Amino acid sequence: MKAKNDDKPWLVRLLNGERTVLAKAISALENETDEASTIISGIYPYIGKALVVGFTGSPGVGKSTLVNSYIAGLCEEGLRVGVIAVDPSSPLSGGAILGDRIRMAAHEHLENVFIRSLASRCHVGGLSRATARIVDVMDAAGMDVVVIETVGAGQSEVEIAEIAHTKVVVCSPGLGDDIQAIKAGILEIADILVVNKCDLPLAAHTVRQLKSMLSLRDESPEWSTPVVSTSALEGTGVVELTEIIKNHEKMSSNKKEGYGKGKPQQRVLRLLANSAADEIKKALLQDKSEEISTICDAVLKGEMIFSDAIQRLIKGSLPCKQ
Question: 3-state secondary structure string, the chain?
Protein backbone atom coordinates (compact mmCIF):
# COMPACT_ATOMS: atom_id res chain seq x y z
CA MET A 1 0.00 0.00 0.00
CA LYS A 2 1.26 3.46 -0.90
CA ALA A 3 2.75 5.53 1.86
CA LYS A 4 0.25 8.37 1.34
CA ASN A 5 -2.44 6.12 2.84
CA ASP A 6 -0.52 5.42 6.05
CA ASP A 7 -2.50 8.09 7.89
CA LYS A 8 -5.80 6.57 6.76
CA PRO A 9 -5.92 3.02 8.10
CA TRP A 10 -9.62 2.73 7.20
CA LEU A 11 -8.77 3.48 3.57
CA VAL A 12 -6.03 0.84 3.49
CA ARG A 13 -8.46 -1.72 4.87
CA LEU A 14 -11.18 -0.67 2.43
CA LEU A 15 -8.85 -0.92 -0.57
CA ASN A 16 -7.91 -4.39 0.66
CA GLY A 17 -11.57 -5.33 0.48
CA GLU A 18 -12.34 -5.79 4.19
CA ARG A 19 -16.07 -6.42 4.40
CA THR A 20 -16.67 -4.75 7.77
CA VAL A 21 -15.01 -1.53 6.63
CA LEU A 22 -16.94 -1.63 3.35
CA ALA A 23 -20.22 -2.12 5.22
CA LYS A 24 -19.50 0.81 7.55
CA ALA A 25 -18.48 3.04 4.64
CA ILE A 26 -21.73 2.25 2.80
CA SER A 27 -23.77 3.00 5.92
CA ALA A 28 -22.04 6.36 6.28
CA LEU A 29 -22.79 7.24 2.67
CA GLU A 30 -26.39 6.07 2.84
CA ASN A 31 -27.08 7.96 6.06
CA GLU A 32 -25.07 11.00 4.95
CA THR A 33 -23.06 11.16 8.16
CA ASP A 34 -20.15 13.51 8.79
CA GLU A 35 -17.74 10.82 7.59
CA ALA A 36 -19.35 10.58 4.13
CA SER A 37 -17.36 13.41 2.52
CA THR A 38 -14.10 12.02 3.96
CA ILE A 39 -14.85 8.62 2.44
CA ILE A 40 -15.67 10.08 -0.99
CA SER A 41 -12.50 12.19 -1.09
CA GLY A 42 -10.40 9.24 0.09
CA ILE A 43 -11.61 6.71 -2.50
CA TYR A 44 -11.67 9.11 -5.46
CA PRO A 45 -8.22 8.12 -6.86
CA TYR A 46 -9.13 4.42 -6.78
CA ILE A 47 -12.43 4.24 -8.65
CA GLY A 48 -13.34 3.55 -12.27
CA LYS A 49 -12.21 -0.09 -12.59
CA ALA A 50 -15.38 -2.09 -11.91
CA LEU A 51 -17.98 -2.98 -14.52
CA VAL A 52 -21.35 -1.59 -13.43
CA VAL A 53 -24.42 -3.51 -14.66
CA GLY A 54 -27.93 -2.23 -13.98
CA PHE A 55 -31.02 -4.45 -14.07
CA THR A 56 -34.34 -2.66 -14.30
CA GLY A 57 -37.92 -3.32 -15.34
CA SER A 58 -41.44 -3.49 -13.97
CA PRO A 59 -42.30 -5.36 -10.74
CA GLY A 60 -42.83 -9.10 -11.02
CA VAL A 61 -40.72 -9.74 -14.10
CA GLY A 62 -38.16 -11.81 -12.18
CA LYS A 63 -35.30 -9.32 -11.92
CA SER A 64 -34.06 -10.65 -8.58
CA THR A 65 -34.05 -14.26 -9.73
CA LEU A 66 -32.27 -13.31 -12.95
CA VAL A 67 -29.68 -11.27 -11.04
CA ASN A 68 -29.20 -14.25 -8.73
CA SER A 69 -28.40 -16.51 -11.70
CA TYR A 70 -26.11 -13.87 -13.22
CA ILE A 71 -24.18 -13.56 -9.93
CA ALA A 72 -23.75 -17.34 -9.76
CA GLY A 73 -22.07 -17.32 -13.17
CA LEU A 74 -19.72 -14.49 -12.20
CA CYS A 75 -18.74 -16.36 -9.02
CA GLU A 76 -17.86 -19.44 -11.05
CA GLU A 77 -15.43 -17.24 -13.00
CA GLY A 78 -13.79 -16.20 -9.72
CA LEU A 79 -14.87 -12.57 -9.99
CA ARG A 80 -15.57 -10.34 -7.00
CA VAL A 81 -19.13 -9.08 -7.14
CA GLY A 82 -20.86 -6.24 -5.32
CA VAL A 83 -24.65 -6.15 -5.43
CA ILE A 84 -26.86 -3.15 -4.69
CA ALA A 85 -30.51 -4.18 -4.38
CA VAL A 86 -32.80 -1.17 -4.11
CA ASP A 87 -36.17 -1.90 -2.50
CA PRO A 88 -39.24 0.34 -2.27
CA SER A 89 -39.56 2.03 1.09
CA SER A 90 -42.39 3.18 3.30
CA PRO A 91 -43.26 6.87 2.81
CA LEU A 92 -43.81 7.06 6.58
CA SER A 93 -40.90 5.22 8.20
CA GLY A 94 -38.46 5.11 5.27
CA GLY A 95 -37.89 1.41 5.92
CA ALA A 96 -38.10 -1.38 3.34
CA ILE A 97 -39.00 -5.07 3.31
CA LEU A 98 -35.71 -5.91 1.54
CA GLY A 99 -37.24 -8.77 -0.40
CA ASP A 100 -34.47 -8.70 -3.02
CA ARG A 101 -31.91 -9.39 -0.29
CA ILE A 102 -33.92 -12.42 0.84
CA ARG A 103 -34.02 -13.84 -2.71
CA MET A 104 -30.24 -13.47 -3.02
CA ALA A 105 -29.46 -15.02 0.38
CA ALA A 106 -27.85 -18.07 -1.24
CA HIS A 107 -24.81 -15.97 -2.18
CA GLU A 108 -24.34 -14.01 1.04
CA HIS A 109 -21.97 -16.55 2.57
CA LEU A 110 -19.57 -16.37 -0.39
CA GLU A 111 -16.35 -14.48 0.26
CA ASN A 112 -16.30 -12.88 -3.19
CA VAL A 113 -19.89 -11.55 -3.05
CA PHE A 114 -21.04 -8.51 -1.08
CA ILE A 115 -24.77 -7.77 -1.14
CA ARG A 116 -26.20 -4.53 0.16
CA SER A 117 -29.90 -3.69 0.22
CA LEU A 118 -30.93 -0.06 0.10
CA ALA A 119 -34.29 1.52 0.78
CA SER A 120 -35.24 3.89 -2.03
CA ARG A 121 -36.52 6.32 0.65
CA CYS A 122 -39.10 7.51 -1.87
CA HIS A 123 -36.39 8.74 -4.24
CA VAL A 124 -37.78 8.70 -7.79
CA GLY A 125 -35.96 6.95 -10.62
CA GLY A 126 -35.88 3.46 -9.10
CA LEU A 127 -32.72 4.06 -7.09
CA SER A 128 -31.61 5.40 -3.73
CA ARG A 129 -30.00 8.84 -3.47
CA ALA A 130 -26.73 7.23 -2.36
CA THR A 131 -26.55 4.59 -5.11
CA ALA A 132 -23.89 6.27 -7.24
CA ARG A 133 -21.62 6.85 -4.24
CA ILE A 134 -22.06 3.28 -3.02
CA VAL A 135 -21.10 2.01 -6.48
CA ASP A 136 -17.89 4.02 -6.15
CA VAL A 137 -17.03 2.64 -2.70
CA MET A 138 -17.62 -0.95 -3.90
CA ASP A 139 -15.43 -0.18 -6.90
CA ALA A 140 -12.65 1.11 -4.62
CA ALA A 141 -12.97 -2.02 -2.46
CA GLY A 142 -11.91 -4.15 -5.42
CA MET A 143 -15.19 -5.44 -6.85
CA ASP A 144 -14.79 -6.59 -10.45
CA VAL A 145 -18.50 -6.21 -11.16
CA VAL A 146 -21.09 -4.09 -9.37
CA VAL A 147 -24.68 -5.15 -10.05
CA ILE A 148 -27.56 -2.76 -9.38
CA GLU A 149 -31.16 -3.93 -9.22
CA THR A 150 -33.65 -1.07 -9.25
CA VAL A 151 -36.95 -0.86 -7.39
CA GLY A 152 -39.14 -1.83 -10.33
CA ALA A 153 -41.23 1.27 -10.85
CA GLY A 154 -41.77 1.20 -14.60
CA GLN A 155 -40.81 3.92 -17.06
CA SER A 156 -39.48 6.35 -14.43
CA GLU A 157 -36.38 4.24 -13.87
CA VAL A 158 -34.15 6.08 -16.29
CA GLU A 159 -31.75 7.23 -13.56
CA ILE A 160 -29.90 3.93 -13.90
CA ALA A 161 -28.54 5.33 -17.19
CA GLU A 162 -26.48 7.82 -15.19
CA ILE A 163 -24.71 5.11 -13.21
CA ALA A 164 -24.45 1.81 -15.09
CA HIS A 165 -22.10 0.90 -17.94
CA THR A 166 -24.62 -1.65 -19.19
CA LYS A 167 -28.38 -1.29 -18.71
CA VAL A 168 -30.40 -4.51 -18.83
CA VAL A 169 -34.17 -4.00 -19.11
CA VAL A 170 -36.18 -7.07 -18.10
CA CYS A 171 -39.80 -7.86 -18.97
CA SER A 172 -41.94 -10.98 -18.96
CA PRO A 173 -44.10 -12.52 -21.72
CA GLY A 174 -47.62 -11.49 -22.53
CA LEU A 175 -47.83 -8.49 -20.22
CA GLY A 176 -49.17 -5.68 -22.36
CA ASP A 177 -48.98 -3.14 -19.55
CA ASP A 178 -45.37 -4.14 -18.97
CA ILE A 179 -44.49 -3.44 -22.60
CA GLN A 180 -46.26 -0.08 -22.42
CA ALA A 181 -44.39 0.78 -19.24
CA ILE A 182 -40.98 0.30 -20.81
CA LYS A 183 -41.78 1.65 -24.26
CA ALA A 184 -41.83 5.36 -23.49
CA GLY A 185 -39.11 5.45 -20.85
CA ILE A 186 -36.58 2.80 -20.00
CA LEU A 187 -36.71 1.18 -23.45
CA GLU A 188 -34.73 4.16 -24.67
CA ILE A 189 -31.87 3.58 -22.23
CA ALA A 190 -31.69 -0.22 -22.65
CA ASP A 191 -28.41 -1.68 -23.89
CA ILE A 192 -29.86 -5.19 -23.60
CA LEU A 193 -33.51 -6.27 -23.51
CA VAL A 194 -34.44 -9.50 -21.75
CA VAL A 195 -37.67 -11.47 -21.98
CA ASN A 196 -37.56 -13.49 -18.78
CA LYS A 197 -39.80 -16.49 -18.02
CA CYS A 198 -39.39 -17.55 -21.63
CA ASP A 199 -40.97 -20.93 -20.84
CA LEU A 200 -44.35 -19.18 -20.53
CA PRO A 201 -46.80 -18.72 -23.45
CA LEU A 202 -46.47 -15.59 -25.61
CA ALA A 203 -42.71 -15.32 -24.99
CA ALA A 204 -41.93 -15.40 -28.71
CA HIS A 205 -44.66 -12.81 -29.33
CA THR A 206 -43.12 -10.48 -26.72
CA VAL A 207 -39.69 -10.86 -28.32
CA ARG A 208 -41.18 -9.82 -31.66
CA GLN A 209 -42.89 -6.84 -30.01
CA LEU A 210 -39.63 -5.63 -28.53
CA LYS A 211 -37.71 -6.05 -31.77
CA SER A 212 -40.42 -4.10 -33.55
CA MET A 213 -40.11 -1.28 -31.00
CA LEU A 214 -36.33 -1.26 -31.39
CA SER A 215 -36.74 -0.74 -35.12
CA LEU A 216 -38.25 2.67 -34.31
CA ARG A 217 -35.26 3.70 -32.18
CA ASP A 218 -32.07 5.29 -33.46
CA GLU A 219 -29.46 2.62 -32.78
CA SER A 220 -25.78 3.30 -32.22
CA PRO A 221 -23.58 2.16 -35.11
CA GLU A 222 -21.33 0.44 -32.56
CA TRP A 223 -24.09 -1.47 -30.76
CA SER A 224 -27.40 -2.96 -31.84
CA THR A 225 -29.60 -3.68 -28.81
CA PRO A 226 -30.21 -7.46 -28.59
CA VAL A 227 -33.35 -9.14 -27.24
CA VAL A 228 -32.45 -12.16 -25.10
CA SER A 229 -34.84 -14.88 -23.92
CA THR A 230 -34.14 -16.25 -20.44
CA SER A 231 -35.67 -18.43 -17.76
CA ALA A 232 -33.91 -17.47 -14.54
CA LEU A 233 -35.40 -20.37 -12.59
CA GLU A 234 -34.20 -22.95 -15.12
CA GLY A 235 -30.98 -21.14 -16.02
CA THR A 236 -31.93 -20.87 -19.69
CA GLY A 237 -30.24 -18.04 -21.56
CA VAL A 238 -28.26 -16.74 -18.57
CA VAL A 239 -24.89 -17.76 -20.05
CA GLU A 240 -25.81 -16.04 -23.31
CA LEU A 241 -26.85 -12.90 -21.40
CA THR A 242 -23.54 -12.89 -19.51
CA GLU A 243 -21.59 -13.06 -22.76
CA ILE A 244 -23.61 -10.23 -24.28
CA ILE A 245 -22.93 -8.06 -21.22
CA LYS A 246 -19.19 -8.78 -21.64
CA ASN A 247 -19.39 -7.83 -25.32
CA HIS A 248 -21.09 -4.56 -24.44
CA GLU A 249 -18.37 -3.85 -21.87
CA LYS A 250 -15.69 -4.35 -24.53
CA MET A 251 -17.50 -2.00 -26.89
CA SER A 252 -17.87 0.64 -24.18
CA SER A 253 -14.20 0.29 -23.17
CA ASN A 254 -13.10 0.78 -26.76
CA LYS A 255 -15.13 3.99 -26.95
CA LYS A 256 -13.49 5.17 -23.71
CA GLU A 257 -16.60 7.06 -22.62
CA GLY A 258 -16.84 5.81 -19.05
CA TYR A 259 -20.19 4.69 -17.75
CA GLY A 260 -23.52 6.28 -18.35
CA LYS A 261 -24.86 7.49 -21.66
CA GLY A 262 -22.76 10.16 -23.35
CA LYS A 263 -19.45 11.68 -22.28
CA PRO A 264 -18.15 11.29 -18.70
CA GLN A 265 -18.44 15.04 -18.05
CA GLN A 266 -22.12 14.94 -18.98
CA ARG A 267 -22.72 12.00 -16.65
CA VAL A 268 -21.02 13.82 -13.76
CA LEU A 269 -23.00 16.98 -14.49
CA ARG A 270 -26.28 15.04 -14.38
CA LEU A 271 -25.31 13.36 -11.12
CA LEU A 272 -24.36 16.73 -9.63
CA ALA A 273 -27.67 18.22 -10.79
CA ASN A 274 -29.62 15.35 -9.21
CA SER A 275 -27.73 15.69 -5.94
CA ALA A 276 -28.17 19.46 -5.94
CA ALA A 277 -31.93 19.03 -6.43
CA ASP A 278 -32.05 16.61 -3.50
CA GLU A 279 -30.16 19.04 -1.26
CA ILE A 280 -32.41 21.96 -2.24
CA LYS A 281 -35.52 19.87 -1.51
CA LYS A 282 -34.18 18.83 1.90
CA ALA A 283 -33.23 22.39 2.81
CA LEU A 284 -36.60 23.81 1.75
CA LEU A 285 -38.58 21.22 3.70
CA GLN A 286 -36.58 22.05 6.82
CA ASP A 287 -36.80 25.81 6.35
CA LYS A 288 -39.35 27.36 8.72
CA SER A 289 -38.53 30.96 7.87
CA GLU A 290 -41.09 33.68 7.27
CA GLU A 291 -39.92 34.05 3.67
CA ILE A 292 -40.85 30.46 2.84
CA SER A 293 -44.25 30.84 4.51
CA THR A 294 -44.91 34.02 2.54
CA ILE A 295 -44.10 32.29 -0.75
CA CYS A 296 -46.45 29.39 0.06
CA ASP A 297 -49.24 31.78 1.07
CA ALA A 298 -48.80 33.81 -2.13
CA VAL A 299 -49.13 30.65 -4.24
CA LEU A 300 -52.21 29.51 -2.30
CA LYS A 301 -53.89 32.93 -2.75
CA GLY A 302 -53.11 33.03 -6.46
CA GLU A 303 -50.85 36.04 -6.03
CA MET A 304 -47.83 34.23 -7.43
CA ILE A 305 -47.59 31.65 -10.20
CA PHE A 306 -45.76 28.41 -9.54
CA SER A 307 -42.81 29.11 -11.83
CA ASP A 308 -42.15 32.49 -10.18
CA ALA A 309 -42.33 30.89 -6.74
CA ILE A 310 -39.77 28.28 -7.77
CA GLN A 311 -37.38 30.91 -9.09
CA ARG A 312 -37.69 32.95 -5.89
CA LEU A 313 -37.04 29.87 -3.77
CA ILE A 314 -33.94 29.02 -5.79
CA LYS A 315 -32.57 32.55 -5.75
CA GLY A 316 -33.53 33.16 -2.12
CA SER A 317 -35.38 36.37 -3.00
CA LEU A 318 -38.19 37.82 -0.89
CA PRO A 319 -41.54 36.72 -2.34
CA CYS A 320 -43.49 39.91 -1.79
CA LYS A 321 -45.85 40.71 -4.62
CA GLN A 322 -47.96 43.83 -4.38
Answer: CCHHHCCCHHHHHHHCCCHHHHHHHHHHHHHCCCCHHHHHHHHHHHCCCCEEEEEECCCCCCHHHHHHHHHHHHHHCCCCEEEEEEECECCCCCCECCHHHHHCHHHCCCCCEEEEEEECCCCCCCCCCCHHHHHHHHHHCCCCEEEEECCCCCCCHHHHHHCCCEEEEEECCCCHHHHHHHHCCHHHHCCEEEECCCCCCCHHHHHHHHHHHHCCCCCECCECCCEEECECCCCECHHHHHHHHHHHHHHHHHHCCCCCCCCHHHHHHHHHHHHHHHHHHHHHHHCCCHHHHHHHHHHHCCCCCHHHHHHHHHHCCCCCCC
